[in-house]
Structures are given as C-alpha cells and as structure tokens.
C-alpha cells in the first residue's frame, strides 16, 4: 500500500471492479499505456495530480505509473471522490490523499500532501494545485517542469496568473484542445449533467422549462440534451456572440431576471460567481431545482439563498430544500457543486478516454520539451490532438481519407495554374 490518506482500505476490491470496467472502454488510454510500458518516458519522475478521484481518473494515474512515474493524487472536489477508488489506487502503489466529503481544511491539507512529494509535473483541475505552488508552496516551485490544466475555470485562473507575470512554468491548456472542448465539454457535460439531475431527483425532464446559464461548450451540451429530453430550454448569456448563437440554434434567450420567473430547472455552466442570486430567488416558482455544472460551487449564491430562507433540510440524498420566508421552496442539488460528478459518475467513460489521452500525451510532451517552453498558458500541440482523435477513430473501426500530395500543395500554396 502506497503512502496515502484514505478513508477505508478495505474497499479496494470494489474499486478495482470499477477500474476493470473503465479499462475495457478506454481504448485510447490503453494504446498509450502499451507504449508507455515499453518506453517508460516518466522513469524517475514524480507527477502530482488534482482531479476528480473516480474510476476514469484512476486509469489515467495507472497509465502514467506504467510509464515509470511516481504518482501522488488528491481530489479536486470533496463530493466527487469515491472512497473505493482511493482504496484501489493505494493498493496499486499510487499515493492518494482524498476521501469523500472532506472538509475545506482537509481538502487543503491533501493539496499540501501532494506537493510534499515534490512533483516535477502537474495535472490540475480548476487550478488549486498550481495556485498553491505559487503562494504557500514556493519551496516546491523550482523543481516543476510544467503541467496541464483540465478545465475552463482553471484556464481562466492560469491566464490571469500569466497576465500578472507570476506564472512560473508552462501550462498546457488541455481544456482548449479540440478533442477536449468539442467532446468532453459538449457531449460529456451534456450527458452527465442530466444524468446527475435525473438520478438525484427521479423526476421527468420532458415538459419542463430549463434555464441554462452560459452558452460555452458546456452550456451548449446541457441545452442540447435538455431539448432532446423534451424540455423547453431558455439560455441566459452575457456574451452577445454566444447569445446570438444560442438564438440561431433554436433556443430562447432571456436575461436571468426574466428566465427566473419561468424556470423549473436551472443549470449554471459559466465559471463565474453569483450567476443566480437573491434577486432571482425572489422571482422563482415554488419547487424550482437549482443545479450547477461549473467547476466551483460559487455560481449559485448559497449565502443569498440562506438569507431569505426560514428553514432548510435534506429531503433526499443530494437534495436540500430551502423553505423561503413566503412559503415557497427551492431545491439545491449536490450543495451547488458539480452536479454531474458530485451526484453521479461524471462524464461517460469513452468521453474521458479522449480527455485523459490528451493529458497522458501532454505529460510525455512536457518531459521532452518543457525546458524549451516559456512560462505561459500554451495550446496542446496539434499533433497530440490529432493523435488522440485518430486513435479513437481506429478503436471504433472508422477510417478517413488523407490528402494527396497534389491536394496538400494546393492548400499550402497561393500560386495556382
């Protein structure tokens, strides 16, 4: 058993069963694992990871370990950690510092435990590990070659650090790779968000009015799948281009102050604070459901909700009822945390195969190139993006055309006869 802090080591066999299932459905990672086992690109290196500790993440950690790395992993969300997966990973020699429902103090201590291993490579989800490296744990900073960020929220934080001139090493924006945002954010978030809402509430979506805040790639997916389930979908946006796109995609577009009066289910996907707040609660229907699909639990303002409530109670697992002073009841799902993973199993396995395939190959790329890269937020190299997509297509038996030499010349030249 690796040096770990986990809740129950006896759950290891249950976690291994989950791990076995995802291995069978992640062909891209499996191909990469076979290559890593042969070439051992991370031999002698330590990788620190802050991700949702569930089965798909476990396989990524295992693949990197097959490549020779020492792995230290903590959870990026207290409610997404699965204790049986923690136990399974620890039994496989991977250091894990996480348990389900940890307090904020415990969460911070787990981040420190990962950095205590002095990692040379970082995989982050939301930017907390990188933030800690640049503030309280600068003692570890000099040894870090580089890292990769998984989420939109994390990329925003990293770009702010770069803008302020404090980012100390290169970070690859995995979230912005085409194989990530076009698939993970749209199809993954679209399916898993509704999976979390439906599992948690056991209510029908058809016939209801759904308000989706934010029409980035995640919001697009949530809106698309909501409509597919038979809901009337209203989109709330602050970006005129995205609002126009939502309208042209066939969705109604309204300010939150108007949408609040109509919604049965609200889903936030913006990465911003207080998207739903006191002035909106005052307008909502009795029985409205509030769910968040953004990384941090800041999009639905919980303090405002508490302030106008006369009582609160848990009425079903992951559903908290707030009875307002006028008698209306609003229902907050999964404490306002990521509903798709705090109240379900997160993105489909095949979708995370793409995202984690990118992460694995980005780690290999950083081993080779980090010393030649500037301390900035950098795009994932196109060849890595295309390699992941090609591996996935091959795994499902799909072939595509290639350009002929004549076509390549035509596309690359401005001279044509």
TrEMBL record:
Keywords: Cytoplasm, Hydrolase, NAD, One-carbon metabolism. Binds 1 NAD(+) per subunit. It comes from the Bacteria. Its cofactor is NAD(+). This is Adenosylhomocysteinase. It catalyses: S-adenosyl-L-homocysteine + H2O = L-homocysteine + adenosine. Its main location: cytoplasm. Substrate binds at residues 125, 150, 180, 184. NAD(+) binds at residues 151-153, 185, 214-221, 237, 293-295, 340, 347. It holds the Pfam family AdoHcyase.
């Amino acid at each position: 058993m690796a040096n770990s802090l986990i809740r129950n080591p006896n759950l290891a066999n249950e976690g291994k069963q989950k791990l076995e299932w995802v291995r069978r459905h992640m062909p891209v990672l499996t191909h990469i694992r076979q290559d890593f086992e042969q070439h051992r690109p991370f031999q002698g290196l330590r990788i620190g990871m802050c991700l949702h500790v569930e089965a798909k993440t476990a396989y990524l950690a295992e693949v990197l370990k097959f490549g020779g790395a020492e792995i230290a992993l903590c959870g990026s969300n207290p409610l997404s950690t699965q204790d049986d997966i923690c136990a399974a990973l620890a039994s496989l020699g991977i250091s894990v510092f996480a348990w389900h429902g940890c307090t904020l103090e415990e969460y911070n201590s787990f981040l420190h435990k990962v950095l205590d291993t002095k990692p040379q490579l970082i995989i982050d989800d939301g930017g907390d590990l990188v933030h800690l490296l640049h503030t309280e744990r600068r003692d570890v900073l000099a040894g870090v070659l580089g890292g990769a960020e998984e989420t939109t929220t994390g990329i925003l934080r990293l770009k702010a650090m770069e803008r302020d001139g404090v980012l100390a090493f290169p970070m690859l924006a995995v979230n912005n790779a085409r194989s990530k945002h076009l698939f993970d954010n749209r199809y993954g978030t679209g399916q898993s968000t509704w999976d979390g809402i439906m599992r948690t509430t056991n209510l029908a979506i058809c016939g209801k009015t759904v308000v989706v805040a934010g029409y980035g790639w995640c919001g697009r997916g949530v809106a698309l799948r909501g409509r597919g389930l038979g809901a009337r979908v209203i989109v709330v946006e602050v970006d005129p281009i995205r609002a126009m796109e939502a309208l042209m995609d066939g969705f109604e577009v309204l300010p939150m102050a108007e949408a609040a009066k109509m919604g049965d289910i609200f889903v936030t996907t913006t990465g911003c604070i207080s998207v739903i707040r006191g002035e909106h609660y005052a307008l909502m229907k009795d029985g409205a459901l509030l769910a968040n699909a953004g990384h941090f639990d800041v999009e639905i303002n919980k303090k405002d909700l508490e302030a106008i409530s006369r009582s609160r109670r848990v009425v079903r697992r992951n559903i908290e009822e707030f009875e307002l002073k006028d008698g209306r009841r609003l229902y907050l799902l999964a404490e306002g945390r990521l509903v798709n993973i705090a109240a379900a199993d997160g993105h489909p396995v095949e979708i995370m195969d793409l995202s984690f395939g990118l992460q694995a190959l980005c780690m290999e790329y950083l081993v080779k190139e980090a010393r030649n890269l500037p301390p900035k937020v950098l795009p994932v190299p196109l060849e890595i993006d295309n390699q992941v997509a090609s591996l996935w297509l091959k795994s499902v038996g799909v072939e595509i055309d290639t350009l002929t030499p004549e076509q390549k010349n035509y596309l690359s030249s401005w001279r044509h006869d």
